[in-house]
């Protein structure tokens, strides 16, 4: 899998890490959802054994092996300039126009 980002998106991703190490996990969140899931990105401290690593510039994205088939081979992640969210697309699909990044690095330690 390949994830394409532009310079503005790269800047926003770096800002969301706040100078701390972390991984961006791309997944469909089905918790408390009566649907097939909502596309989400979380910043986590460590990958799980079932995660696939995708290197994008200086960032590492993770996708669970079981969810990899839900995504096209090449994705484009684009930061919204007017709102604190991201758009995820491919040449053949619009995955979401309102993906927020949730930092859960400290949650696991509390």
From TrEMBL:
<dbReference type="InterPro" id="IPR000361">
    <property type="entry name" value="ATAP_core_dom"/>
</dbReference>
<feature type="domain" description="Core">
    <location>
        <begin position="1"/>
        <end position="103"/>
    </location>
</feature>
<dbReference type="InterPro" id="IPR035903">
    <property type="entry name" value="HesB-like_dom_sf"/>
</dbReference>
<protein>
    <recommendedName>
        <fullName>Core domain-containing protein</fullName>
    </recommendedName>
</protein>
<dbReference type="Pfam" id="PF01521">
    <property type="entry name" value="Fe-S_biosyn"/>
</dbReference>
């Amino acid at each position: 899998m390949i994830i394409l980002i532009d310079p503005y998106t790269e800047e926003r991703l770096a800002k969301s890490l706040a100078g701390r190490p972390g991984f961006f996990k791309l997944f469909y969140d089905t918790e408390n959802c009566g649907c097939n899931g909502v596309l989400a990105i979380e910043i986590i401290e460590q990958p799980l054994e079932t995660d696939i690593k995708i290197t994008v510039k200086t960032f590492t994205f993770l996708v669970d092996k079981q969810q990899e088939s839900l995504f096209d081979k090449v994705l484009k992640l684009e930061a919204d300039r007017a709102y604190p969210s991201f758009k995820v697309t491919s040449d053949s699909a619009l995955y979401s126009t309102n993906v927020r990044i949730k930092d859960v690095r400290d949650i696991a330690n509390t």
